[in-house]
Design a protein that fits this description.
Elements: E1 2-7, H1 11-22, E2 27-31, H2 47-50, E3 56-60, E4 73-77, H3 83-86, H4 96-104, H5 112-122, E5 123-125, E6 139-143, H6 149-160, E7 176-179, E8 181-182, E9 184-185, E10 188-189, H7 192-201, E11 206-210, E12 212-220, E13 223-231, E14 234-246, H8 249-259, E15 262-263, H9 265-270, E16 277-278, E17 290-291, E18 294-297, H10 310-323, E19 335-339, E20 350-355, E21 371-378, E22 386-388, E23 399-401, H11 408-425, H12 448-458, E24 460-461, E25 491-493, H13 508-522
Parallel strand pairs: 1-2, 1-14, 2-11, 5-6, 14-25, 15-16
Antiparallel strand pairs: 3-4, 6-8, 7-19, 9-10, 12-13, 13-14, 17-24, 18-21, 19-20, 20-21, 22-23
Helix pairs in contact: 1-7, 1-13, 5-13, 11-12
């Protein structure tokens, strides 16, 4: 019997499992996806070829009223390592005020001063070593070894548009334009599965079972004692001596709670599920980043267009294998910018991802031309959605309704962000590379209504759903600041669903921090001393 059963082997679950196993606990991880053996997982540029694969859930959202009735797909990792195995490997933590806001809303012990030591403990940074950055941790964090000329032009163009250069989005200030650091080590992806699970396997304390869909939590009274799971068409049960820990992410964790009788009373009754613990906040508070593209085409062959054709792919693959250089070393999303579109001196309310290709998702035929794409998103959206059960069948995906742009402020900021992205693409730094006319939205779209319509037509997820098992101390909170599910014993949630509010940026690094901090909480250790940074 394991001491701890962790349902989900994503970024948070892998970090938690690794720490618990290395501390001597017997840990069983149940992951619904396969092992992370696909070779493209471990190559920085490989994720582009995996986006349509079965290594991701391709969740269909509900039709979004503010997106012209479209039902955009919300992909999420479905493989050991979770999103950290199939994402663009961008290492971003968010802003100080994100975590201070958590603490102010009732998440005691989760302020920036409290969480920074856990970011540092996780980190093995190849360039930075200071009060903000750590070395020697399980998670490799590296500078890019391959940067496109288009990406360098974007960083210069951002400065020409009034955004200061920053060498570090995760240091004293986030504001600025610069090159991303990535979760890589020695030219290979370093997911939490690579950084935490693989070393922990050597202890003999960790067992990982893949292809296991957890179907419900087993209870004795108000105490979680184990889980039921499906593997290869058979139902199995396994018990935990200490705790059951849900780490299946912002979509699957609330679904699993509701299937187990923990959630909103009316929702459970609708599916004939007996109430074990009424928690009206389960599945509520869904938040996600929504992005939309500004695009210009190239005057010639610039960026990475065509680098995946047969002959160039062979050349690039050999270059990577022999010299750890070339386009395969790129994470494609090589640069970002963070700024405030209302006051350029204030803390950021917008993030821009830059890609040196034409990157537009949708039902239309892909654009087969070299180009540059700036994708802005509102960092702290006010829109809130929900996760509901579609049925009581554990194999069926839940109802996912992000309600993108339902808050007017999100649209106001989106329009300003799109205009700034267009302005960046028109700066002199891009002149040697890009055609003077704009491809998307197009020069003809200038007034507010036209730009709103474009955003509604082109908006897509940035793959950052959070918040559906919110942490806090009020009646709508699902877990307390120790991540215990309210009203139940021996049951915790450790993943991005516990975030009270979406952080200002990419969510993989915070997921790993949550796993790190949870490992100390679960073991009853004193938290790491708060940072003075």
């Amino acid at each position: 019997m394991a001491d701890y059963i962790i349902a989900g082997g994503g970024s948070a679950g892998s970090a938690l499992a690794g720490r618990l196993a290395e501390a001597g606990a017997k840990v069983l991880v149940l992951e619904s996806g396969p092992r992370d053996r696909h070779p493209l997982i471990h190559i920085p540029a490989g994720f582009v070829k995996l986006l349509d694969s079965n290594l991701l859930y391709h969740y269909a959202t509900e039709r979004q009223a503010a997106l012209n009735g479209r039902a955009p797909v919300m992909p999420q990792g479905h493989v050991l390592g979770g999103g950290g195995s199939v994402n663009a490997a961008i290492y971003i933590r968010g802003q100080r005020s994100d975590y201070d806001g958590w603490a102010q809303s009732g998440a005691d012990g989760w302020s920036y001063r409290d969480v920074l030591p856990y970011f540092r403990r996780a980190e093995d940074n190849d360039r930075l070593a200071d009060e903000y950055h750590g070395n020697g941790g399980p998670l490799g964090v590296s500078d890019l070894r391959q940067i496109s000329d288009l990406t360098r032009a974007f960083v210069r163009a951002g400065q020409e548009a009034g955004i200061p250069f920053t060498p570090d989005f995760n240091g004293a200030r986030q504001r600025g334009v610069g090159f991303n650091q990535t979760t890589t080590r020695n030219g290979r992806r370093c997911s939490a599965a690579v950084g935490y699970l693989r070393p922990a396997m050597k202890t003999g304390n960790l067992e990982v079972r893949t292809g296991c869909l957890v179907t419900r939590i087993l209870f004795e009274g108000d105490r979680a004692v184990g889980v039921e799971y499906s593997q290869a068409g058979r139902l199995e049960q396994v018990c935990a001596a200490e705790e059951v820990i849900l780490s299946a992410g912002a979509v699957q964790t609330p679904k699993l709670l509701m299937l187990s009788g923990v959630g909103p009373e009316a929702e459970l009754a609708r599916h004939g599920i007996a109430v074990k613990q009424r928690l009206e906040g389960v599945g509520q508070n869904l938040q996600d980043h929504l992005e939309f593209p500004a695009v210009r085409f190239c005057t010639g062959r610039h960026g990475y267009y065509g680098e995946d054709n047969f002959f160039r792919a062979i050349k690039n693959g050999l270059q990577y294998l022999l010299f750890k250089s070339g386009p395969v070393m790129s994470n494609v999303t090589e640069a970002c910018a963070f700024m405030n579109v209302d006051d350029m001196e204030a803390e950021p309310n917008i993030q821009m991802h830059f890609v040196p290709i034409v990157f537009m998702e949708g039902d239309e035929q892909p654009v087969k031309r070299a180009g540059a794409t700036v994708n802005p998103c509102v960092l702290r959206p006010e829109s809130r959605g929900e996760i509901r059960l579609r049925s009581a069948d554990p194999a069926e995906n839940p109802v996912i309704d992000p309600r993108y742009l339902s808050a007017p402020e999100d649209m106001r900021l989106s329009v300003k962000a799109l205009n700034l992205a267009r302005r960046i693409l028109s700066q002199p730094a891009f002149a040697p590379f890009l055609e003077p006319q704009e491809a998307f939205p197009g020069a003809g779209l200038q007034d507010e209504a036209a730009l709103q319509a474009y955003i509604r037509a082109r908006g897509k997820t940035v793959y950052h759903p959070v918040g559906t098992c919110r942490m806090g101390k009020d009646d709508r909170a699902v877990v307390d600041p120790e991540l215990r599910v309210r009203g139940l014993r021996n049951l915790r949630v450790v993943d991005n669903s516990i975030m009270p509010a979406l952080i200002s940026g990419n969510t993989n690094a915070p997921a790993i921090m949550i796993g790190e901090k949870a490992s100390d909480i679960i073991r009853g250790l004193k938290p790491l001393p708060p940072s003075n940074a």
